[in-house]
Write a sequence for this structure.
């Protein structure tokens, strides 16, 4: 404490000088103040020493990083996982690109930095000179430390820029002037980013979906598995150490998992080709330039619920999902408000096969007959007489063939798609049993497929269903469902009675490609017995026989079964129909099931399911050999000459064989009960749950 001694000496000297002026009271006060100050200083020194020892590093770092903001922490983005098809084809991936960031504050910190920096960016990266200079001079940006001057620069361009700045690199013969100039390139750095790419563009768009910037996704596999595909960002911290060197700490990002879809791009491609052929082929019809209002096709494995392909007529480019030009004319787009555009895009992005509900029509008959047989209301050898109509609660409900089908076995009922027989069968079951089986077949409930936006359709409940509703629902009119509900339910009637939850993804992989999780097929319930299922298969086989209503669906050389659907849309009598065909092969041991829906084909007479059969036949003909299903029947030449034109010419020679004809107004509209049932055909986005239906019925 020599300082203190010196201080005391100085104090004594000064006291001598001022002695005369200060009285003893004031002197005492002064001594007290000095002592207090000295004590405070000593305390402060102890405190500083203590803080320095305990937290010195922390504060030093804070001060240093604050003074050098370009070394503050930076995000290292994770790589979102890939999506593969069943055979390993890449459907969606993330590609690393770089954003060029301009730190205007650093560039402007010395006049000599500006020109060399601008020159480097123009000559190496091809960035517009005016753009750079305006950022460096504009009052709003000239002090900014983060200006994205160019997005999505390749690794090659990034390397070229870094080599340009690295004057010590070997092989460069630079003049002294050039070296000085290149050393003055400051304030440019590259920020990592990933952009999502879809190598197959439009193919499988409904199922794959797309991710927006920020790895946010709402549609398809991208949407449903978004949290699985996403990883965790890493971080890079940088600061100057006490020797003024840059110290860096890097926390590596955790990349997302990849998923493997059950979709097979080869089958998906075949499906989309057939849909497109139809849309183009009928684009000159009486109702505008769309070949149909909607077309949907699902290909599935009936033995485990795997979806092999799923497509609809509203395709879009996953790499450019907001482009409306393929869907609307320039004038139409110009006339759209922002809200119109959003609505149009949502309509295009929506997956018709799982989000649109409709009255299925006669493809519901395998379920009705299966239920009645299973619960014992009918037996396999029961016969039914069709006189062309059925009188139900004072309402005359007609069969498709108004002259009547006469006496029929169940195989003939299925083959002729006889409504009269179905109404008799449902009446025998009664409302309670009919609804019980609707629930067993999962109608009115989501299937739980691993895709967002699934609707449920609307079904009657025990309170809302009357005799007329029972009669019409027996042949698929009155209740509504989605394509995915229908194919899952029918699959269970033909595979031995097993209801599998449909799925589009079956594996999750880590970033090294190792399996993290196998998503097994999920058997939810038994709908009908093995024995019932065997009968249903056999009777559906009759449908595609040469004189059956599904004759045009038959692929020559292959045993198969199926069912037509020709549903009158609401309001009845407007000539609008939803046509469908669901079928499978081989007949005794189904390996693949295909469901085709053609909503309002662009033709004069819509009421023939042949349009759907044509697409079905085209798809099956190509995928059966691809799937390794061998022909198991003699060739007969059936459907060898079927073309889209021959289908269009319904009354021509080529198709002068019995077809399912439906008369307008044959089916009454869903009645009174509750208005909500009637609105079921409006493509209700989410449909209603059975609980909601119960509440509505209770009102
Ligand atoms: Zn009939």
């Amino acid at each position: 404490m020599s300082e203190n001694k010196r201080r005391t000496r100085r104090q004594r000297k000064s006291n001598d000088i001022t002695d005369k002026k200060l009285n003893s009271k004031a002197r005492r006060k002064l001594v007290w103040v000095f002592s207090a100050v000295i004590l405070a200083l000593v305390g402060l020194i102890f405190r500083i020493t203590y803080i320095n020892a305990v937290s010195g590093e922390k504060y030093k770092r804070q001060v240093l990083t604050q003074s050098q903001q370009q070394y503050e922490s930076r995000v290292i983005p994770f790589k979102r996982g890939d999506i593969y098809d069943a055979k390993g084809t890449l459907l969606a991936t993330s590609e690393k690109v770089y954003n060029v960031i301009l730190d205007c504050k650093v560039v402007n910190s010395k006049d000599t930095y500006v020109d060399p920096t601008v020159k480097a960016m123009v000559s190496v990266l091809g960035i517009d000179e005016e753009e750079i200079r305006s950022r460096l001079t504009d009052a709003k940006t000239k002090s900014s430390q983060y200006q994205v001057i160019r997005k999505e620069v390749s690794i090659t361009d990034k390397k070229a820029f870094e080599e340009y700045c690295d004057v010590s690199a070997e092989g460069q013969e630079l003049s002294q002037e050039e070296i000085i100039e290149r050393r003055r390139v400051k304030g440019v750095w590259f920020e990592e980013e990933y952009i999502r790419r879809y190598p197959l563009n439009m193919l499988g768009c409904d199922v794959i979906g797309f991710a927006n910037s920020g790895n946010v996704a709402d549609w398809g596999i991208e949407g449903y598995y978004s949290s699985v595909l996403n990883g965790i960002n890493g971080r890079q911290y940088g600061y100057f150490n006490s020797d003024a060197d840059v110290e860096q700490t890097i926390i590596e990002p955790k990349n997302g998992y990849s998923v493997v879809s059950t979709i097979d791009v080869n089958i998906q491609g075949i499906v989309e080709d057939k849909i497109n052929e139809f849309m183009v082929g009928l684009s000159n019809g009486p109702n505008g330039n769309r070949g149909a209002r909607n077309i949907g096709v699902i290909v599935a494995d009936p033995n485990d619920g795997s979806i092999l392909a799923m497509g609809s007529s509203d395709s879009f480019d996953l790499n450019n999902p907001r482009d409306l030009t393929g869907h609307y004319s320039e004038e139409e787009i110009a006339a759209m408000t922002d809200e119109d555009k959003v609505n149009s895009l949502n309509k295009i992005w929506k997956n018709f096969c799982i989000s649109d509900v409709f009255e299925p029509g006669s493809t519901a008959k395998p379920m009705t007959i299966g239920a009645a047989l299973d619960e014992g209301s009918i037996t396999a050898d029961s016969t039914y007489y069709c006189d062309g109509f059925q009188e139900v609660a004072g309402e005359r409900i007609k069969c498709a063939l108004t002259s009547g089908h006469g006496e029929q076995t169940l195989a003939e009922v299925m083959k002729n798609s006889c409504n009269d027989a179905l109404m008799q069968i449902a009446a025998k079951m009664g409302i309670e049993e009919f609804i019980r089986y609707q629930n067993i077949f999962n109608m009115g409930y989501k299937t739980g497929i691993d895709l967002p936006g699934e609707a449920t359709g609307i079904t009657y409940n025990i309170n809302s269903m009357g005799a007329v509703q029972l009669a019409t629902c027996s042949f698929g009119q009155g209740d509504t469902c989605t394509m995915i509900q229908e194919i899952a339910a029918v699959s269970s009637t033909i595979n031995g009675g097993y209801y599998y939850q449909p799925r589009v993804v079956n594996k999750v992989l880590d970033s090294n490609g190792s399996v993290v999780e196998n998503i097994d097929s999920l058997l939810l319930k038994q709908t009908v017995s093995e024995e019932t299922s065997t009968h249903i298969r056999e009777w559906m086989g009759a449908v595609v026989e040469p004189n059956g209503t599904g004759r045009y669906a038959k692929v020559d050389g292959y045993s198969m079964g199926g069912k037509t659907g020709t549903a009158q849309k609401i309001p009845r009598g407007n000539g609008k129909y939803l046509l469908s065909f669901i079928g499978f092969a081989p007949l005794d041991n189904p390996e693949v099931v295909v469901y085709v829906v053609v909503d309002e084909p662009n033709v004069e007479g819509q009421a023939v399911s042949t349009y759907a059969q044509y697409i079905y036949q085209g798809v099956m003909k190509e995928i059966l050999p691809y799937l390794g299903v061998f022909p198991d029947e003699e060739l007969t030449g059936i459907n060898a000459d079927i073309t889209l034109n021959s289908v269009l010419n319904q009354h021509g020679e080529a198709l002068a064989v019995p077809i399912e004809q439906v008369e307008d107004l044959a089916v009454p509209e869903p009645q009174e009960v509750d208005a909500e049932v009637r609105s079921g055909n409006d493509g209700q986005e989410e449909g209603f749950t059975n609980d909601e239906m119960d509440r509505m019925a209770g009102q």
User: Anything to note?
Assistant: The two ends are 94 Å apart (CA to CA). The pocket of zinc ion is lined by residues 386, 399, 401, 405, 418-420 (CB under 6 Å).
